[in-house]
Amino acid sequence: MAEHLFQTVRGQGADCEIVRCVDFDIAPGVEADMGDGDQWPSIREKILAADILLISTPVWLGHPSSITQRVLERLDAELSQNDEQGRPMMAGKVAVVSVVGNEDGAHKTIADVFQAVNDIGFSVPAQGGTYWNGEAMHSKDYNDLDEVPEAVASTTAAVARNAVHLARTLKNAEYPPYK
């Protein structure tokens, strides 16, 4: 689903990079660098350099994955980081969410992630979340679909367009200083 969203983002002239956090050793904690082989600092640098953050997660037992929760916990370190104008470091950045799974909970998962990224300082565009849920207790995954359902495809494209629009708007008109 992330790649489908990125197709629209790339079509609007933006560069994208998928970082699969599951492939990194991200230590538990709420600091920017937990030391001892923690690979979060390299991911954090990518987030700081990006205008848009997509958090794409499966829904497991009605919640975001444990990896997503770890990412949100590590982003918690940004709550105490401000720019020279007193704004949160993530103010002016956009966050969107995509969720896939074979059970209920997509809306709750999106809401949980939205609340966390908003607290950290990200802006969420209109219709900033997209999801696909397969039939409960079945084994068909999003990657197994012959064709993405039109409602999912159009929503995913809207999320991408709105994210790019908001990111460009925030680049041209920053939030006012907090000081």
Describe the structure.
The chain is α/β, with parallel strands linked by helices. The protein has one domain (2-172): Rossmann fold (3-Layer(aba) Sandwich), CATH 3.40.50.360. It has helices at residues 2-11, 40-49, 66-75, 106-120, 150-172; strands at 52-60, 63-64, 94-101, 129-133. Strands 2-1-3-4 form a 4-stranded mixed sheet. The mean pLDDT is 93.
Major sheet summary line:
4 strands, mixed
Supply the CATH superfamily name: Flavodoxin domain
Q: How many domains in all?
A: 1
Helix count equals: 5
What global shape is seen? globular
Radius of gyration: 16 Å
Please name the defining characteristics of this protein.
179 residues, alpha/beta, Rossmann fold, four-stranded mixed β-sheet, globular, Flavoprotein-like_sf, Flavodoxin
Provide a brief overview of the structure.
With 179 residues, the protein is of the alpha/beta class.
Secondary structure layout:
Elements (H helix, E strand, L loop, with lengths): L1 H10 L28 H10 L2 E9 L2 E2 L1 H10 L18 E8 L4 H15 L8 E5 L16 H23 L7
Parallel strand pairs: 1-3, 3-4
Antiparallel strand pairs: 1-2
Helix pairs in contact: 1-5
